[in-house]
Amino acid sequence: MHIAVIMDGNGRWASRRHLPRSAGHRAGARAVDAVVEAAVRHGITTLTLYAFSAANWSRPAAEVSALFTLLRRHLLTQTQRCVDRSVRINVIGRRDRLPPGLCREIERSEQATAHCNRMHLRIAVDYSSQHSLLEACRRLQSEPGIDRARFAERLADVDHALAPAPEVDLLIRTGGEQRLSDFLLWECAYAELYFAEALWPDFDQQAFRHALAAYRHRERRFGRIVADTLATANHG
Ligand code: FPP
């Protein structure tokens, strides 16, 4: 099962406490640890977290820098825990605009966890789905015979993904907004969408369990009709 999460609401969490936005992001990083742990425990095979969108470059330089420092520190401190739990780390998105120190840490974490196979943790940084789709199309222009598999491979190349991502089964967005914000537009073609009111730092393991429970009650039809309707249609 592939779960993707748009972690929204760090800023509001901080301003409600009269704290700087960076404090909200730090609290958000603690929520990341808790949700990764819960995902491993629930047997999730792929978890993709939206940590920094390409659009986030428009934020004040100090906030961008604080986010990159936090990401770097997270990789530095969490990689060994990931190895212990057999969680493979992969940072997806552009790398050409990231600080060199962060890129080095990303490579180190990816190498250190390369043998891990219990869960695949993908962290999207400087990510834009529209950019990835366009760039994949551009690279395919010179190749004959485009098909889904080849397209998915090019998309993975563009994203620095270790392999083409499985389709997203459940997309969670916290913070009360109901939009996709340029996240995994190809991979979410048949994703179930779950919007939580909780701000990301408040999204704890119990909230994660609720999202999973809601997903289990969804009927996923992938364009088919349900068995009951089919039986009625045949006998009616
Ligand atoms: C959106 O909330 C959140 C972000 C832009 C950053 C997400 C980053 C983290 C959760 C922490 C670092 C990540 C990892 C993987 C360690 P917002 O700032 O837009 O909140 P707002 O809508 O309330 O202003």
Structure explained in plain terms:
The chain has 236 residues and is of the alpha/beta class. It has one domain: Undecaprenyl pyrophosphate synthetase (3-Layer(aba) Sandwich), CATH 3.40.1180.10. It has eight helices and six strands; from the N terminus they run βααβαβαβααββαα. Helix 4 (100-112) links the parallel strand 3 and strand 4 (119-127). The radius of gyration is 19 Å and the shape is globular. The two termini are 37 Å apart.
Brief rundown of the structure:
The protein has 236 residues and is α/β, with parallel strands linked by helices. It is 47% helix and 15% strand.
List keywords for this structure.
236 residues, alpha/beta, 8 helices, single chain, Undecaprenyl pyrophosphate synthetase, globular
Bound ligands, each once: farnesyl diphosphate
How far the N terminus sits from the C terminus, by CA atoms, comes to 37 Å
Shape-level CATH architecture? 3-Layer(aba) Sandwich
What's the total helix number? 8
How many distinct folded domains?
Answer: 1
User: What is the name of the CATH superfamily?
Assistant: Decaprenyl diphosphate synthase-like
Class derived from helix and strand content = alpha/beta
Average predicted confidence as pLDDT:
95
CATH topology: Undecaprenyl pyrophosphate synthetase
Strand content: 15-25%
CATH class: Alpha Beta
Number of strands: 6
Q: Which residues form runs of ≥5 with pLDDT under 50?
A: none
| Order of neighbouring strands in the sheet with most strands | 3-4-2-1-5-6
What oligomeric state do these chains adopt? single chain
Question: What does the radius of gyration come to?
Answer: 19 Å
- Helix and strand run: EHHEHEHEHHEEHH
